[in-house]
């Protein structure tokens, strides 16, 4: 397992990558000037970052890099400027938050825009998937935090019944723009912490759907990082300090601080936490990246981005693929070594809805069979077409296997649809019986 720290700036200084254990700079990815929350690791395959092409932010793009190449491999140009960007844990889907308040969800391997919906009244500032990838949490310049169920977003029947209210929760307690969001690993019982320029961090309960506590800080908060223990979080402030907040404290005021990140006293702009070694990583306006031991409150090492303020930091864990034939065959078969196509601007009209549906895999130990490791019938079709063009005996065998998986995936979709319709019928009958008794 290789653990790297990646960081970007709003000024075109590229994306820096360092080995967190040795401090060695690994590679500098070129041509990146990204807004805050505009950098994400796409699984173990690629990096992606949103770009703003002019000062007004009226137009922008999304760039992809492969891990071993410094040059941009794929450039996409969404229909509007995208700032916040996030990918699910497997790197199969990527979401972008638009300046209009819209959210876009793409399938990475096919580039297909699966979904677009209006999420906020103003620009989306940050996006985050839950630990199990079933929920998406968004923050906005309008001060709101909203929670979205991916299953519900793709449920046409429920959307028609409930109109445009697609979110699970709508939290509206911040008075200015939401600057960052973190979520713990509690599933539907998880806690969400949001930060804002209003100088507060708020702890929300997903299960109760309400605000649990409001923690007031001496200055505006730019970024958050959650301790893996789940009892405390770290808040990066414009006053150059990193404060410690308690998730379950009865007090509403946090006073503990890790101190100043740099001697110059520059604002701390972003945070990330590395559970391996329990290290806290911070970036600041002077381009310095600091690695802290938060328990001992001491500085471990520093990296220099070299140009401009650091506005994005992520800790990336990647499995180093061996040279065995089996590993290489699996790597190639899943298309991981090839750059993805550009992301589409618009949703395709007239497509079969089931072809682009997001498939949520059943949990471990489930009795539900998993027929295929692919995520949409569109992607399987694309790989079949590529194999047909190659035309060898080996590819013929592989093509037949893909065709069989394609057929099974459609059968699985049909079965899930029937199960859903049966369950819906049972619920409706119970509601009718209950109302008549």
UniProtKB/TrEMBL annotation:
Q: Which UniProt keywords apply?
A: Coiled coil, Repeat, WD repeat
* Residues in WD repeats: 82-116, 117-150, 171-214, 261-302
Q: Which CDD domains match?
A: WD40 (cd00200)
Q: Which InterPro entries match?
A: WD40/YVTN_repeat-like_dom_sf, WD40_PAC1, WD40_repeat_dom_sf, WD40_rpt, WDR18/Ipi3/RID3
As recorded in UniProt, coiled-coil segments are 399-433
Q: Which PANTHER family does the entry mention?
A: WD REPEAT-CONTAINING PROTEIN 18 (PTHR18763:SF0), WD-REPEAT PROTEIN 18 (PTHR18763)
Quote the protein name from its UniProt record. Neurobeachin beta-propeller domain-containing protein
């Amino acid at each position: 397992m290789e653990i790297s720290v990646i960081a970007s700036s709003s000024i075109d200084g590229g994306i820096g990558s360092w080995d967190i254990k040795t401090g060695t700079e690994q590679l500098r990815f070129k041509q990146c000037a990204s807004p805050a929350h505009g950098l994400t690791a796409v699984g173990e395959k690629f990096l992606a970052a949103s770009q703003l092409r002019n000062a007004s932010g009226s137009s922008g793009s999304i760039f992809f890099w492969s891990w071993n190449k410094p040059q941009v491999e794929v450039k996409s140009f969404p229909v509007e400027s995208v700032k916040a960007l996030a990918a699910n844990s497997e790197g199969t889907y990527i979401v972008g938050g638009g300046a209009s308040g819209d959210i876009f969800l793409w399938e990475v391997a096919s580039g297909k825009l699966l979904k677009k919906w209006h999420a906020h009244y103003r620009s989306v500032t940050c996006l985050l998937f839950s630990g199990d990838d079933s929920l998406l949490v968004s923050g906005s310049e309008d001060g709101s935090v909203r929670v979205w169920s991916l299953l519900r977003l793709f449920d046409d029947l429920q959307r028609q019944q409930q109109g445009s209210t697609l979110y699970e929760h709508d939290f509206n307690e911040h008075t200015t723009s939401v600057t960052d969001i973190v979520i713990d690993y509690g599933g539907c019982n998880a806690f969400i912490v949001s930060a804002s320029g209003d100088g507060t961090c708020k702890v929300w309960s997903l299960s109760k759907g309400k605000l649990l506590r409001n923690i007031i800080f001496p200055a505006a908060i730019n970024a958050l990082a959650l301790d893996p223990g789940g009892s405390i979080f770290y808040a990066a402030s414009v006053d150059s300090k990193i404060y410690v907040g308690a998730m379950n404290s009865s007090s509403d005021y946090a006073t503990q601080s890790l101190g100043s990140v740099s001697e110059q006293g520059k604002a701390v702009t972003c945070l990330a936490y590395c559970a391996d070694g329990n290290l806290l990583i911070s970036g600041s306006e002077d381009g310095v990246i600091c690695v802290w031991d938060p328990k001992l409150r001491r500085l471990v090492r520093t990296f220099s981005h070299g140009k401009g303020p650091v506005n994005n930091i992520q800790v990336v864990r990647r499995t180093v693929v061996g040279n065995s034939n089996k590993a290489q065959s699996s790597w190639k078969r899943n298309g991981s070594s090839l750059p993805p196509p550009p992301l589409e601007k618009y949703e395709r009209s007239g497509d079969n809805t089931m072809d682009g549906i997001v498939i949520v895999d059943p949990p471990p130990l489930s009795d539900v069979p998993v027929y295929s490791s692919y995520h949409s019938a569109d992607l399987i079709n694309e790989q079949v077409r590529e194999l047909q063009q190659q035309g060898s005996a080996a590819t013929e065998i592989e093509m037949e296997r893909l065709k069989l998986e394609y057929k099974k995936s459609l059968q699985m979709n049909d079965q899930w649809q029937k199960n859903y319709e049966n369950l819906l019928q049972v619920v409706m009958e119970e509601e009718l019986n209950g109302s008549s008794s």
